[in-house]
Amino acid sequence: MSDFKVKFLPAEVSIEADEGVSLLEVARRAGYVMQSECGGQGTCRRCKVKLVSGDVFLTGEPNISSAEREQNLTLACLARIVEDIIIEVPDESELTFAKDEFKPQWLPGEHPGDELHTFALKVDPLLQCLSITVPKATLQNNSSDFDRLCSTLEREGCKRPFKADISILKGLSSALREDNGFLNVQTVRIGNTTEICSLDTTEERPLYGLALDIGTTTVFGRLIDLSSGEVAAESSEYNRQIPCGGDIIHRIIYAGNEKGLNELNQLVLDTIGSIFGNLISEVDATEDQVVASVVAGNATMEHLFLGMNPKSIREDPYVPTVTEFPLLQAGDVNMPQMPHSAPMFLSPAVASYVGGDITAGLLAAGIHKSDQLTLYIDLGTNGEVVLGNREWLTACACSAGPAFEGSGVRCGMRALPGSIDAVVRDLDSGGLTYNVIGGGTPRGICGSGLIDLLAELHATEIVDARGKLQQEKDGRIRKANRKAEMVLFDKVQTGGAEDIVITDVDLDNLVRTKGAIFAGIMTLLKGVGLQASEIERVVIAGGFGRTLNIENAIRIGMLPDLPRDRFEYIGNGSLRGAGLALLSRKMWGELHQIAKMITYFELSTWPGYMDEYMAALFLPHTDAALFPSVL
Amino acid sequence: MSDFKVKFLPAEVSIEADEGVSLLEVARRAGYVMQSECGGQGTCRRCKVKLVSGDVFLTGEPNISSAEREQNLTLACLARIVEDIIIEVPDESELTFAKDEFKPQWLPGEHPGDELHTFALKVDPLLQCLSITVPKATLQNNSSDFDRLCSTLEREGCKRPFKADISILKGLSSALREDNGFLNVQTVRIGNTTEICSLDTTEERPLYGLALDIGTTTVFGRLIDLSSGEVAAESSEYNRQIPCGGDIIHRIIYAGNEKGLNELNQLVLDTIGSIFGNLISEVDATEDQVVASVVAGNATMEHLFLGMNPKSIREDPYVPTVTEFPLLQAGDVNMPQMPHSAPMFLSPAVASYVGGDITAGLLAAGIHKSDQLTLYIDLGTNGEVVLGNREWLTACACSAGPAFEGSGVRCGMRALPGSIDAVVRDLDSGGLTYNVIGGGTPRGICGSGLIDLLAELHATEIVDARGKLQQEKDGRIRKANRKAEMVLFDKVQTGGAEDIVITDVDLDNLVRTKGAIFAGIMTLLKGVGLQASEIERVVIAGGFGRTLNIENAIRIGMLPDLPRDRFEYIGNGSLRGAGLALLSRKMWGELHQIAKMITYFELSTWPGYMDEYMAALFLPHTDAALFPSVL
C-alpha cells in the first residue's frame, strides 16, 4: 500500500506514492517526461510544477523567483511527498512530444536504398533472408537435419561454417517436416561464420530492419524494408532518460548506483519500445516482422542501452568499457518487442566522446571514400568534430555543453512549438523579427534562434566582442542581481510567468559553446598541419542543423569562414548511417574501418587546445584574419 | 488440492496424487527410480509393486503370474490412482543405486593427465584459465577497457579476434578497477575467435572440468582438475529417465509430446545435478569452481540433454537433428549448478545410432592414431561396433537390444547386488558354480552371467546349436505355458517370489543379441574386404565389459575367434574420451576428425546384413570355420 495520492492536472492522472518520494519520480511514473537538465539537483529550474492543493517537503531552496513562488510554483525534483497533493504541470515543464515537429523531413535521396545506389552498392542486408527447400533425408543421404540445411544454404551462396543456437536447433526437426522442407531462414555472417538466426515456415511477407539513433535528447527510429531498402516508417521521441539528467554527465552520475543504472537502461528501452510500437502500427506489421536492428548512439547512450555502467567515461582518462560491440540479439538487450533471436548490431565507437553516432554519420556522409578534405560537425547535445578524407580521419569532442539545446540559458529551450528558432534584423530599421515555431507568442529560444540573436546583437554592437551586453546601447537592457539582461519579450506580452530575456550569463555560455566548437576545429587542423581555408566540404549533422543559419554561425565565429557553397546539411547522419549499415554488409564493414581509421584527440589534455579555446572566446575571434568575410 | 494420498513402504514416503494418475508417475514424483524397460506399456514386468491397502484401477491386464497375483503384486505402470493406497516397493522393482557397485575402478593410466602423457600431449584444457593484470588506462593509452584486456590476453598468447558476451562486458569495468587490474580470465578458442567466458578477481583456487557420459542406463561424471589433469572425483547414478523407458526407442516414444520431452530433459538434468552435487562435495569445492564440461552420450541422450526432440532418430531414414553441436553454456542447457557462462562442449555424433559416446570412446582408445586394424565394441544398452585404424574408420549400430542388461530375459537384471555375474562349470563334475554380486542368494542374472550360462549350457549340450533347451538332457528343464524353461534356483532356496529360470524365449533373445553383434562385425569386415583374422586389436568398452568372460563370449559366437591377447577392456571409453577432450584442445580437434572420418553403415538396409545375421543365430555360428578354437 502506498501512502499518498498525487493527482496531476490538467490530465487528471492520479497515482499513489510513498512518503518521501521525489515528485519528479512520481511524475515519471505517471507517464510525464519532465524537463530536467541537472538530473534532479534543483539547479536547472526546468521541472517547475504548480501546487494546486496540499503541500510538499522541499529538500533544498528551489531556484525560482518570488513571482513564481507567489504562483505556488516549485521544483518537482526538490519536492518530496508528505501528503495527498494535486499538481499542475505547466506546458513548458513537460517534454510534450510534438509529433509534427519531428515529422520525417527526408533530404533528397535520403532513402537508404537510394543512398546505397549513389554509393554504387546494392541492397545486401546484414541479415540475409532466404526462402529455401531442404531435401528430405533418404537412406542414401541420411545426414542430419542440420547438415542438410547447411548444404542447402551453401547452394544458395552462404558460406561455411554455419552456426545455430540451441533454440534454433530445437525447432529445426519439426520445421523441416512441416511443409516438405520449405523454410524461411535468416542468416548473419560474423567473422568467418554464417550464423543462422531464425527459421520458420510462414508465408512470404515484408521483413523490416530497425535503424535506431539513440540521442541523449531524442531517439529516432526508422523501419526499413529489407528487400527494397525503402524507409517504411519513421518515428522519434524524447529519450525518457531526460528527467534523470539533461546531458551525458548527469546521466552518468545518475547511473552511479545499480538502481539508477537499471532505471536509465529501462527508460531508454521504454522509449525505443514506444517508437517501435509507432513504427509497426504505421506499416501495419506484426512485431516479428522486424528481424534485425542497427543501433547508433554516443558511447554513453550505447553503454546505457546495454545496461553497462558508463562510469569510467567521465573519469580521467575517460575510457569507455568497450568501443566495438559484440553482435547481440534482441533477447540479450531485453527488447521484448522483437523476436528474441533478432540480431542487434551496434555502431562502433572511437572513444568515450566520439561514439557510434559519429562513425555512422561519417559513413552516411561518405567522407571515408572522398578525396575532399571534409569537416564533419555533429551539433547535438554534445559537439563532435571530425576532419579528414579517405586517407585519414581525426576527431575530437568539444566540451561545448548543451547551450544550443537551451540548457544553461535562462530562456533557452529545445526546438519545440513556442520556441524562437530564427531572428532576422531589418537592415533599415535595425529591428529584430522573431520566428516562433508553430506561431503564436514565444515561450523561449532554441539553438538556431540563439545563434541568430548573438550574431545580430553583436552586429549592432549591443553585445561587444567579448559577449557582454552594452547597457548604454539599448534601453531594453537592465540589471537583475547585478547582472545585465536584455528583455526580448515582456511577460505581459507573452502571458508567461516571466519576461523572455537574454542575460550576460547566457551570452557567456553561448560564446563558450561556439568557442569550444571552433577551437576543436582549429586543433584538428593544426594537428595535421592544415589551414581552415583548405577545407573543401563542411557537413553539418544533428537535430538543430536543419534550422541553423550558416551565415550567422560564421558571423559569431563558430564555423570557419569558407565559401558558403562548401557547407551542406546531412540531417540525422547517425540514423542515416545506421540505415545504410543495416542494408549493406559492405557498409557495415566500412563502418568498422572508419572507427579504426579515426585518430582521436583528447582535447582536455591536448597541448595548445586551451590557447585555441581562449582565442575563440571572442566574436568572431581574436584573430580577425580567420574571418575575412565578417565585418 | 490433490485427490488422494499414496504411501510407499518400507520408506514411509507419502505423496498426494490426482485421480487417474499412473502409479509409476506417482512413484517417480516420490523419488523412486523404478525399474522399467517398456516405458509404462505393461509388458516388461519390471515395475512390480505390492498393494498393502486400498485398490487401484488397472488399464490393462498385467503380465504377472497367479502366484504374484496372490501376493497382491501388480504393475505400477498400469495402475491408476482411484483412492488412498499404501504400496510396498519390492527391492527388485527399484533401481536402488548401489554406490559400492559403481565405485570408480580406474584402469592403469586412466587418469586423463596420465593418458595425455601416453599420447605425448600436455594438459592444455579447452577452457584456458589465465591470471593477468590489465594495465590501467592513461591519457597516452586511453583505449577502452575491453581493448586493454584483449591486448593483455594477446601478450599471454591468446589469439585475436576476441569476443565477449554482454554479461561479461557488463562486469568488466568494475572488475578491472577492483584489484588494480588483476583478473582471472577464462577463454575458449572457437573457430578463429577467442571467446572470453568468464572474468573475476577471486584468489587462486582449483578449477575443475566436468566430464560427463550420459548413458541410457547410467550417467557417469568425473571432476577433473584443469591444471593437473587428475581425476579429483567420480560419481555415477542411474539415469532418472529409466522409468520412462528402458531403452532408447521407448525414450523417444515417451518424448513424442512436449510434456514427455520436457520431462525427460528435466530427469537427465536432475540426474546430472545429483552427480554434480556428489562430485563437488567430495572435493569440498563450490559450484562455481566447475567451469567447463565435455558431455558425451549417444545421439538420443545428447538430444534429450539439450531438450531437442529425438523423434526423427527412430523414423526411416533415421537421422538426428544435429551431429555436431554448437558450443553451449551451462545457462543454455539449464544446468543451474554451474556458472551460467561455463562452456559446455558436446562430443560430436556420427549418425542416429553412432553417437558422441562412441567418438569419445574411439578417442580414448586411440584407434585414430594407430596402424593396427582395431575393432572397437561398446557393449552398453545398445551395441555399437567400429572397425578401422588411423587411415579409415567404419561403424555400425547393432540392433542388439539390451538383453545383456537383463531386458527381455525373465530373470535378467542389471549388474546389481544379488545378480549372478559369472557362471563356472566344474570340469570334473560338470556342475555349475554361480557368483553372486555382493554374495548371498541370487535375485537374477546379469549380462556377463548370461553369456557364461549360455556358453556352459551349450558346451554341455543342454542347449543345442540353435539355442533351444534340450529337455531330455537335464531334469531341471520343465515346460511352462508350452515353453521350455530350466530352473537354476528354486524359490524355496532363494526366498524370492518366483524360481530363477532361464527360458527358451530368454535364450532366443540372447542368441539374437549375440548374433546381431557378430553380424555387425562381419558386415563391417566384408564392407572393407577384410577377414576377421586380420583384426589386430579388439577394444571392449561399456559397463558390462568389466566382468565379461572373453573366452565365453567367443564360445557363443559373439566375439571373433582371435588370439585372446588381442582383446583389451577400456572401461567407460566415452567418459575417458570426454575427460581427454576436456583437457586437450588437440584431442578435442581429433574428436571431430574422428566423427568426420567414420563411414556409417546403416545395417537396417545394408545389403547382406540380414544374411550375416541369420548365419550368426547359431552357437557359435553356422560357419564353424570362423571359430576354430571352439570345440
From TrEMBL, chains A, B:
UniProt name for this protein: Ferredoxin
Domain 2Fe-2S ferredoxin-type: 4-93
Coiled-coil regions, chain positions: none
Signal peptide, first to last residue: none
InterPro entries per UniProt: 2Fe-2S_ferredoxin-like_sf, 2Fe-2S_ferredoxin-type, ATPase_NBD, Beta-grasp_dom_sf, Corrinoid_activation_enz, Raco-like_middle, Raco-like_middle_sf, RACo_C
GO molecular function: iron-sulfur cluster binding
Source lineage: Bacteria, Pseudomonadati, Bacteria division LCP-89
PROSITE patterns: 2FE2S_FER_2
Organism expressing this protein natively: candidate division LCP-89 bacterium B3_LCP
